[in-house]
């Protein structure tokens, strides 16, 4: 291979120089992919400016590096990347140009747009891991991409987890012949390929992930596409030393230490990129050592996205440099110089590629338009009939005309006019009214499927299908500490299912801070019950990635208050995973934590509303004791959905009777339990508050007030059978009580019961919420008493209601 004098010197470091022989066919094919990808970007931007798509973000300028990345990506491997990776997806044959455009237009059919069924902005890539019935595909036989998120660095924690799964599969001998594992792994040889933008490396999740990868020693090869900017902000504002690889030098592994391989290579230097990737992937696959490949001098020919133009923030010199160092230009020059291709041949490829991209774009647009035609035609027909049925109504005529002249009508246009027309038909009994009503109902159903399905699993393994199994006790069932119930439950899980593993701060050697995993590391090995660093985001990421690859993680967040450190991974990634892929991926991850009452500002939080409203898509379970908690773990393990299980911090030393069937007990989701029957007032609560409410109920009973106490048990899903409404039908009065702030968890419960379940019709008194003070709880017992709801508060809330009903019997207390 000769080097031209004119071409700048490669940035490859010495260690990167290893042999790789290119074939003509390979180079020509790569060039063709890159050229097609560039045309796809250029035409994509025009589509947005023509108003056919709402927003566009493209991978131009990063084509060549992605060809190199794709070259070493094998079946079973995973990608965790971001919106610049279209060329990679084309090169691994997991995205067609037509599909690329289908996503730009938001085509809702997964056959047309398999990444997200039209739910995600363009350039959010993913492959489908699960079949229509919710069962796993053989991921070991396909090339996989986990589902992108828009948030910069959101892909990083999951990247760690996907790579961590290979480590678990390689190091746990019990999984070598496991039938399930065979769908996901060949002895842990799979590599996870990542990508991130230079500016996004300034995020905490990036540094946490790099550190975790270096500590864990996992097969993760992460590229940084460095175009010098994050939208308009240059590197000097983003990164120490202006360079992520410079900043990360201390992470470079050395003899006898862990860490990463850190490479730097130019984004226009095709052979150097290929060699670098070869080396990094070889190391990852063989040794399970991670790499960071800092791909520098990358360009962005069209600027960041369709939202602006880069002329506003790039200097003339920079723009000129970008033209000169455009990776396509450089790759072509190299290929000609090396004799792989002639200029004439390139011209032919350019022409053919442009034609192909235009063809595929048109096919995507035609198919997108056709998917709307049925609704439009149906609505138009209904409107025409409405016009003739009610000729004197000018509004219907106006709406019909409006629909008729809409250019490129979308579903909203069709449905909106029919809904508005129904208002005009309200006083008639015309057949068109019934037909329109039926049509709107049908549309609601179909559009629910298009835009709102798959928030939770829709398979036969959905958590809601797991049946309740009650605990069985015998005459000799011992009373034990709550933590022993948990320990017995986990012991059985590890024994019975080799795919189960647990990680978290202090869960390994000491068996968690409350010892529910005590002795289990000794019994099942360090690979099954593992200590981690203090890094909640990547603990979550380890769980998500491993669950995406068929394992059954139980990951622990040491205290509920610390969950905020993992909130982005929870809300942006896990909670919307099944939704944003329209049922294409799932991560049945169990998140274990403990919360509610204990001591002080950061150790007794119960921010349930914050979680309920940021984590739709994850089940949120709040057992009042450890037996119910064990039942939830068993339920979730039988299901294919993720859950957050919040154990009661003050429950580990309380005595409970050990069930005989601890490995079988299943607490059902969405089914509250009436823990005390009563007639006068229903008190709805959960978690540690159950004991306080029960104490108050006993005290109320002494003065003749009969409270019915209901433990909600699961907040998401919430009372799916109407038990609370039925109780209110009996008592006609209700109190919602929890430890969250005012308007938080209680506000949510009240909305569910009064608004959603329509229990207001049975109420004879105003519903009452008892919650904590609107600040974090103060320290020590008095801090708890004056910050959180206590027995007296509950007693008095119920008393006050009854005092309004029977003032003579219950005169005001004070
Ligand atoms: C958490 C978060 N913050 C901000 C944004 C808005 N945003 C989207 S892309 C982007 C710039 C990213 O730059 P870089 O990482 O260098 O990637 P590039 O687009 O240059 O390839 C920003 C600020 C976001 N999507 N997510
Ligand atoms: Mg950038």
From TrEMBL:
Classification via Pfam families: E1_dh, Transket_pyr, Transketolase_C
Assigned keywords, A-Z: Oxidoreductase, Thiamine pyrophosphate
GO molecular function, one term: branched-chain 2-oxo acid dehydrogenase activity
Source organism phylogeny: Bacteria, Pseudomonadati, Bacteroidota, Cytophagia, Cytophagales
GO biological process: branched-chain amino acid catabolic process; response to nutrient
EC primary class: oxidoreductase
Identification of the protein by name: 3-methyl-2-oxobutanoate dehydrogenase (2-methylpropanoyl-transferring)
EC numbers, comma separated: 1.2.4.4
Function: E1 component of the 2-oxoglutarate dehydrogenase (OGDH) complex which catalyzes the decarboxylation of 2-oxoglutarate, the first step in the conversion of 2-oxoglutarate to succinyl-CoA and CO(2).
Domain (Transketolase-like pyrimidine-binding): residue spans on this chain: 480-654
InterPro entries: DH_E1, THDP-binding, Transketo_C/PFOR_II, Transketolase-like_Pyr-bd, Transketolase_C
The protein's required cofactors: thiamine diphosphate
């Amino acid at each position: 291979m000769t080097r031209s004098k004119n071409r700048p010197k490669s940035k490859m470091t010495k260690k990167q120089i290893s042999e790789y022989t290119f074939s003509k066919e390979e180079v020509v094919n790569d060039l063709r992919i890159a050229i097609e990808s560039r045309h796809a970007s250029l035409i994509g931007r025009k589509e947005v400016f023509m108003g056919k798509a709402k927003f566009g973000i493209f991978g131009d300028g990063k084509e060549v590096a992605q060809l190199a990345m794709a070259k070493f990506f094998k079946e079973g491997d995973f990608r965790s990347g971001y919106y610049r990776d279209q060329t990679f997806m084309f090169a691994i044959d997991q995205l067609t140009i037509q599909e690329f455009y289908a996503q730009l237009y938001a085509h809702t059919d997964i056959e047309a747009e398999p990444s997200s069924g039209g739910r995600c902005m363009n350039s959010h890539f993913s492959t489908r891991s699960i079949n229509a019935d919710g069962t796993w595909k053989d991921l070991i036989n396909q090339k996989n991409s986990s589902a992108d998120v828009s948030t910069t660095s959101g892909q990083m924690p999951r990247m760690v987890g996907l790579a961590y799964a290979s480590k678990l599969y390689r190091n746990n001998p019990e999984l070598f012949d496991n039938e399930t594992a065979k769908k996901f792994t060949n002895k842990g040889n799979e590599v996870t390929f990542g990508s991130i933008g230079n500016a996004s490396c300034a995020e905490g999740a990036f540094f946490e992930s790099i550190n975790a990868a270096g500590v864990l020693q996992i097969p993760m090869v992460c590229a940084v596409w460095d175009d010098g900017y994050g939208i308009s902000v240059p590197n000097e504002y983003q990164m120490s030393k202006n360079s992520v690889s410079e900043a990360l030098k201390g992470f470079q592994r050395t003899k006898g230490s862990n860490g990463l391989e850190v490479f730097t290579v130019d984004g226009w230097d095709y052979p150097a990129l290929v060699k670098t990737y070869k080396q990094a992937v070889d190391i990852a696959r063989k040794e399970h050592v991670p790499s960071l490949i800092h791909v520098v001098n990358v360009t962005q020919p069209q600027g960041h996205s369709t939202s602006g133009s880069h002329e506003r923030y790039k200097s003339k010199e920079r723009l000129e440099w970008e033209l000169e160092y455009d990776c396509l230009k450089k790759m072509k020059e190299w290929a000609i110089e090396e004799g792989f291709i002639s200029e004439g041949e390139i011209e032919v490829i350019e022409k053919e590629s442009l034609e192909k991209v235009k063809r595929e774009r048109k096919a995507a647009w035609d198919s997108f338009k056709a998917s709307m035609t049925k609704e439009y035609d149906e609505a138009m027909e209904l409107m025409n009939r409405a016009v003739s049925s009610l000729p004197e109504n000018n509004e219907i005529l106006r709406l019909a005309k409006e629909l008729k002249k809409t250019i490129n009508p979308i579903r909203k246009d069709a449905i909106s006019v029919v809904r508005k027309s129904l208002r005009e038909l309200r006083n008639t009994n015309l057949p068109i009214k019934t037909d329109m009503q039926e049509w709107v109902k049908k549309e609601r159903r179909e559009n629910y499927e298009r835009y709102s399905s798959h928030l939770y699993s829709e398979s036969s393994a959905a958590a809601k299908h797991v049946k309740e199994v009650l605990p069985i006790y015998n005459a000799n069932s011992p009373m034990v500490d709550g933590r022993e119930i948990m320990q017995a439950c986990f012991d059985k899980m590890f024994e019975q299912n080799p795919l189960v593993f647990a990680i978290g701060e202090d869960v390994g050697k000491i068996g968690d801070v409350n010892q529910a995993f005590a002795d289990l590391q000794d019994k099942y090995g360090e690979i099954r019950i593992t200590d981690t660093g203090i890094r909640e985001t990547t603990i979550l990421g380890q769980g998500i990635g491993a669950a995406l690859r068929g394992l059954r993680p139980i990951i622990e967040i040491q205290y509920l208050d610390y969950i905020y450190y993992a909130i982005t991974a929870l809300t942006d990634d896990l909670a919307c995973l099944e939704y944003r892929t329209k049922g294409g991926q799932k991560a049945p991850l169990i998140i274990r934590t403990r919360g509610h009452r204990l001591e002080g500002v950061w150790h007794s939080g119960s921010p349930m509303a914050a979680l309920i409203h940021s984590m739709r898509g994850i089940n949120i379970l709040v057992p009042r004791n450890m037996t119910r908690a064990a039942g939830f773990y068993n339920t979730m393990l039988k299901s294919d959905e993720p859950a957050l299980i919040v154990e009661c911090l003050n429950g580990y030393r309380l005595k409970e009777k050990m069930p005989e069937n601890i490995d079988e007990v299943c607490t059902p989701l969405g089914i509250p339990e009436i823990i005390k029957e009563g007639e006068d007032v229903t008190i709805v609560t959960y978690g540690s508050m159950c004991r306080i409410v029960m104490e108050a109920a006993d005290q109320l009973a002494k003065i003749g007030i009969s409270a019915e106490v209901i433990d909600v048990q699961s907040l998401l899903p919430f009372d799916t059978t109407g038990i609370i409404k039925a109780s209110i039908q009996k008592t006609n009065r209700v109190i919602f009580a929890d430890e969250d702030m005012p308007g938080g968890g209680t506000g949510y419960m009240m909305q569910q019961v009064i608004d959603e379940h329509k229990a207001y019709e049975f109420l004879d008194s105003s519903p009452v919420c008892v919650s904590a003070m609107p600040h974090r709880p103060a320290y020590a017992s008095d801090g708890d008493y004056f910050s959180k709801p206590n027995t007296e508060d509950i007693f008095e809330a119920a008393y006050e209601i009854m005092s309004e009903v029977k003032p003579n019997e219950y005169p005001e207390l004070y």
